[in-house]
Amino acid sequence: MNEYLMAVVGGILIGLSALILLLFNGRIAGISGIAWRSWQSSVEQKWQWLFIIGLLLGTWLAHSQLNITVPQLPDNNVGWIVLAGFLVGFGAKLGSGCTSGHGICGIGRLSKRSFIATSIFMSTGILSVFLSHFI
């Protein structure tokens, strides 16, 4: 399958899954919030774990069935990768959501806060790529 077509289909599936979760469960498909709440004891814990398992299983299935190569992590940057993960988690908690919650669900609901947060996510990402590749 063409890589552009896969991106479009993937985007449509992400949007549909977020819409289905909102319509049938009344919940926002913000991955950081779902992951955070899955560790807390509550009645809702079951669907959150199923959502996370579905993300992992869907990724594995796509890579194995569509012959998509899995990106390899560099061996020499493990400390930076761990630090980056903590910073992303801290930022998601500080910003009351992650790119999926704000970028997909929030913008879809025309949330002003989500437009601002997504603009900051994207600007920071673009700046990070620029600095890491050109400086």
Topology overview:
Layout: H1 3-25, H2 31-38, H3 45-65, H4 78-94, H5 99-108, H6 112-134
Helix pairs in contact: 2-3, 5-6
Bin the helical content.
over 70%
Strand content: under 5%
Order of helices and strands: HHHHHH
Distance between the termini: 35 Å
The total beta strand count reads 0
Largest sheet: none
Number of domains: 1
Shape: globular
Tally the helices.
Answer: 6
In short:
By secondary structure, the protein is an all-alpha fold. Helices cover 76% and strands 0% of the residues.
Structural commentary:
The protein is mainly alpha-helical and 135 residues long. It has helices spanning 3-25, 31-38, 45-65, 78-94, 99-108, 112-134. Helix content is 76%, strand content 0%. Helix 5 (99-108) packs across helix 6. The mean pLDDT is 83.
